[in-house]
Write a structure and sequence with these properties.
This protein is α+β, with helices and mostly antiparallel strands. The longest helix is centred in the first third of the chain and has 18 residues, at 2-19. A 5-stranded mixed β-sheet has the order 6-5-10-3-11, with no helix packed on it. A 4-stranded antiparallel β-sheet has the order 4-9-8-7, with no helix packed on it. The chain has a two-stranded antiparallel ribbon with strand order 1-2. It has one domain (24-146, 159-183). It has helices at 2-19, 126-132, 165-171; strands at 27-28, 31-32, 38-44, 53-57, 64-72, 76-80, 82-86, 96-105, 108-114, 136-144, 180-183.
């Protein structure tokens, strides 16, 4: 009986030691993508020659979520997609709305303006062109797709509110002083 208890005890200790092994880090080309969030700022101008798009090449692991924020007012970040409702002004169409949007694949993030109901830039005032098209700064944030460590159906709620830039920075312990800045 004592031998059986000894083997059971050793088996339990061995199982516990094995189950605590945290060898789930995904490392590709020397970069640990599953635990490190990345940020990159890009500044560019939307124009007809660029089809009202700004493109940024990136290597995006399939295990990451892409978040894009637009710098608003010089010190606040607003998540896109975002609809912009412009006030009625004389000589311009009424109910002017456009969207900042983005699409991505494994090697590129494309930020674009979708304008279904009016023509850019002719339906904008010069002040609106300056405010919404010229020198726009966007922050691209790549975060692990499964930061909570809980899989699929078991996880009913995200571990952080991705629409709140400051919450994302705090949750992923991002260092804003290390953001790569790119001018287009």
């Amino acid at each position: 009986m004592k031998k059986i208890l000894l083997f059971l005890f050793l088996g339990a200790v061995g199982f516990t030691a094995y189950s605590c092994d945290n060898d789930d880090d995904v490392v590709q080309q020397g970069v640990d993508y599953d635990t490190i969030a990345q940020m990159k700022d890009i500044t560019g101008t939307f124009s007809s020659t660029g089809n009202y798009t700004i493109n940024q090449g990136l290597s995006i692991p399939s295990t990451d979520v892409v978040l894009v924020y637009r710098l608003v007012g010089g010190n606040a970040w607003q998540q896109i997609p975002k609809s912009v409702y412009l006030p009625d002004v004389g000589g311009k169409p009424v109910n002017r709305v456009f969207d900042y949007n983005f699409v991505f694949n494994s090697s590129n993030v494309q930020i674009r303006i979708d304008d279904q109901n009016f023509n850019l830039p002719s339906d904008l005032t010069s002040a609106e062109i300056t405010e919404y098209l010229n020198n726009q700064t966007f922050r691209i944030v790549l975060v692990p797709a499964n930061a909570s460590g809980v899989g699929g159906a078991k996880s009913k709620q995200a571990p952080v509110d991705y629409s709140d830039y400051n919450a994302v920075v705090k949750y992923y312990n991002l260092d804003e002083s290390k953001v790569q800045v790119i001018k287009k």
